[in-house]
């Protein structure tokens, strides 16, 4: 769970900004949205399959891009 210590001469806006950054880094909001509704296992597998395909295509794209420079 993210938490920050407010410095002596720090305004509320600055502290809030630091807190939001920390929440984004820990993916708290993303996870909360994902857990908002029940997701059947088929949907989870479908999303995993799509993300695996995207990851593979990105890797292939980067490899081809690297090879073209040689």
Automatic annotation (TrEMBL):
In terms of InterPro entries, this protein maps to: Ribosomal_bS21, Ribosomal_bS21_CS, Ribosomal_bS21_sf
Q: What are the alphabetically sorted keywords of the record?
A: Ribonucleoprotein, Ribosomal protein
Keyword field contains ATP-binding: no
Source superkingdom: Bacteria
A Gene Ontology term for the protein's cellular component: ribosome
Which one Pfam family would you cite for this protein? Ribosomal_S21
**Family per record:** Belongs to the bacterial ribosomal protein bS21 family.
Q: What is this protein called?
A: Small ribosomal subunit protein bS21
What is the protein's species of origin? Answer: Aliarcobacter cibarius
